[in-house]
Queue: 4 jobs
Job 1
Amino acid sequence: MKRRKVVKRAPRARAGFTIVEVIAAIMILTVGVLGLASAAATVTRMMGAAEIQSDAAAIAAARFETLRATRCPLASGSATGAGISERWAASQLGNAGMRMYQVTDTVQFRNRRGLRTQAYQSVVQCLP
């Protein structure tokens, strides 16, 4: 009988991840998730601020349209509603026959940073 030679093989590497690789992957994933959560909070805050600014612009636009629908002379005034206060002032442009006024509407509203003021201007021609 012939003897077989026994060849010793090197031990095979096991399939899978080491604990260091798993910890590194968890850390990278955690940083990514925290970044997404921070971005979502910032976007939500910005949307809230944009909503109140949009409301303020709508109030100013409504004031301009109301003044356009009135007869001259335009008067200055103020109003408050829905947490937004406004003051408007009109100054005549050109001669009195043109019936054109420059109107400045200053709107104040409160946001997270405090009281904010936004000014809007338009030229209004009064009805004959």
Job 2
Amino acid sequence: MLDDPDQSTLIDENGAVRSVQAANLIMPSNELEKLWSPMSLERLARTYWRFLTRATLGIVRVKYSDNERTVCVLFRAFPLLTFQKPEYEMDDKRGVVRWRIEKGLLVAARGRGGDGFLQIDVERRGPDSDEKNCEVLHAEVEVSNFYPSIASSIGRWVYTETQSRIHVIVTHGFLRSLARLDLAESRVGRFATPASAPAMDDVPDPPPSGERSPAQERPEREPDSSSSAPGG
């Protein structure tokens, strides 16, 4: 069931976009318990990129490197959006995967460098009142502090009626698809096997439900390293 907040897409006076799409999924409690791990969170991240490619009939693709994820049209030479490698937060009730927006053709100059972000946030909200032995999983896809180049160069109305509308449609499709529990295998496999996956306590905790994440605080950049293993 889609559960978007009121005014789910907003543009502030400075031109920064915040867009949130959400859904409540009813899942068997035992199945959700099996899936609740950093490995599944990493697979959820990959599922989002897989859905984006499928929804665009393969025209939009995601290219991976050690420290970036590049959303491009067919080839890396046409980078629409480049994200920093994903960050993961998880506890026994909530899991977050976040990609900071680095650059790209769709990003205005003032929005580059990692201040904006895309994130998927899933939260266990307890037993469902109607379905026995089932639990409510609330899922949100959020874009925040994003400065679209279309809005700054052509106009906000054009952005709202084109790029923003397409994003909402694709995101709603992704959220509906989660009901099938068809999670893609990670391309990177940071948490791929029980032997290599950290315990949940070793993944940073997300902030309490209802509080803003410290995602707007830009972290120190890590040096490139062939031994790094970012997931998603």
Job 3
Amino acid sequence: MSGQQRLTILDSALVSKVWSGHPVDFSLLGNANDTIYASYYDSSEYMTVAMRPPGAGSSWKYKKLTSQLGWDSHNYVTAALDGQNLLHVSGNMHVGSLVYFRSALPGDIGSLQQIASMVGTQENSMTYPVFLNGTGNEMLYLYRDGGSGNGNEYINRWNPGSKTWNRLLGTALFDGQGQRNAYLGAPNAGPVTGPDGYYHLFWFWRETTDASTTHDVCYMRTKNLTQWQTASGTALALPVTSTTTGTIIDTIPEHGGVINRGQISFDAQGRPIISYHKFDASPNGYTQIYNTRLENGKWVAHQTSKWAYKWNFGGNGTLVLQVQFGPVVLNPNGTLTQWFYHYTGAAGPVETGYWVLDPVTLQPTQTLPDAYWPAHLETARNPGMQVNWAQVPSKVDPGTVYALRWETMPNNQDLPRTPVPAATQLMWYKLRDPNASTSVFRRTSDSKRQAKPGRAYIGTGVGWRGGRYWTNGALQRTGSN
């Protein structure tokens, strides 16, 4: 099997100058006719939306919003279009009050207005907003209320007729009982639609703001997002707590090497595979990637990596991730592949590529090189900075990819920098993807993505270093708290 080919540039344009003091996620959306919506923080740190109609030579239209970013990489911006083509924008929240804008007219960014409240409760301590597609293509909004180590998860439902929100459930989805919180696969992950017609959801528990207190990998599924069950079909009462039986698939103690990040995918038999890392059983307790699969009704943990390196992480704030990975990807030719990246020592260098996996053992049989973006765009042009990307596939041509590229300073655990670096260019690219018929997991310079359908998400964008993983418009993001 040969490696993937790099994308080639068809068109490009400068969108704006943007904030570069630290990495924070931007959002990129495309509608049915490939009108592009980019949501980002401008050079003055204000949340801004830009729109570009389809066609060569089209010009951008802009709308600066009233929300201003601080020194926090958790405060990404995310956006979605509903069934009436109204634009919804949210973000810049880390244990803060609701920040939410909605257009009054379909597709019209000039009519974006700030909405003070969605449902009126649990809206003063919000983090990790995610727009989702529910059953019947209804739009949902998932978020955490409370902080890391003390938070609950709620889901709101959009009513297009009355243009109002209400709670999907009569209770929280997850309840930390004032002592912990659930991280849904990653801080802003959500349900994933599987080939069996179920929504699949996995999560970790976290006891405090210290990332090293993450523990246990858990799972449940549902057909309608309101009635949930274990993998064996046992009904679960809501809200789910850390004592809910039948949900833990891998018991990992605090300080056991697992962090609030992971992936879920499905093999050729439709069996879910949940990917994460933890310390192995060796005397040194090295960090390894595990792919745990549901086999004959039981979860079987397969250690896929064999590294002689330990990432002994901990602390608060957004961390620079030393171990990163993608989901196990089922390719059209039947092979399984998985992207990986890891430090080989405490300060590097790094090793990256993607494995071809044995379908039975989930062990690597071949390692292929990692290449995706045009080579001259992968390296930062500004000294000391990193490259960030956001991308979305064209809905008109599956072989076309739209992307945003910008450069920032790396993570600094959400602490201010002095002096503040100059703003950098936010560039838009239209690219040809020669890998459109294959589904290998692709690395970007500072964010990872794969082209494979199945996620329930409708928001798009890119995360900070190690932060976001993209699946046909799906997101996952990783931060410490």
Job 4
Amino acid sequence: MNAIAGCYLCGDESLPLTDEHIFPEAAGGNIARRILCKPCNDGLGLWVDAPYLSQKHIQLGRAAYGIKGKRGDLPRPFPDEYVPDGTTDGTRITIAGDFSSRVIPTKPIVTVTNNGEIRLALSMDHQDRHRVPRVIRTTLSRFFRTAEGKSLQWSAEEQEKAVLRTIDRALLTESRTTPIEVSLYGQWSIDLQALFVEHVKVLFEVCCIEFGNSFLKTPEGERIRSFLYMASRNEQPEWSLESKPAELGIAAGVPPEFKSILAALDVNDIQTNHLALLSPTGGIVSMFGMGATLHSESLHMSRTSFWEPKLYMNSINGGHSGVFRISELMRRRK
């Protein structure tokens, strides 16, 4: 391999290199190499990785497999408010990143009975029970400042007794657990360009790592590098999926025989592995089952006679991760 000096993307040899996750870390990526300077690393993270990770089906995959972001949070692919099926009392819920439901507190309603007693209606999730005293105190304090509250002509002592009495009653109320069903619906749009650019990035990086300048100095390698460099600076002119893949020599999608190849290598779950398969004439990348394919005879990868086809395999659910020679995987299976 003819090694690359400096940053793989911009070529700057004066800046220190930083760890770049081949597959995005927030998507479960755990294979990293020191191949990019910080400006290029940050640019790819902001303008390539982030748009990819913001796609709803990627968020759904991350939530389903428990892949948290850098701040330890799961994405919320269903961020809206939902009304449980069959309910008529105005109950609304939200769906957390782990798909657990939470009741949205209702606005407290204060009424005064004919005999001058105060009633307060309030609905909260049982996880918010500790907030009940504060909510009641705040609600009644505001009520006593309204015209209706002032008309009661209660002293400060009487108001405080009413607050404490209401809190005591509320805390004596038992929490109720009710099985609910919720229909989650909506329209999701997928930015296919964002998916394509992310897959191009992975192919570019693994080809640079494995083949160095034997890849980067080819016309295809330079076109892909230039495309990603402009994307990392948010300076990419308008382009379409009708022409750009052919221009770069990268087709969106993976070939039908890819699953058969993986099965021969004893890799049977394409959904829970991020994969990049390299051969002397190209490569295939797959993330969450979607990917892209690089085909090119002019990459001259075969000049590196000692190089063997490799598989970058990144499990997102606790399985094996690493870079494996295909011959090694075949021997393991035997």
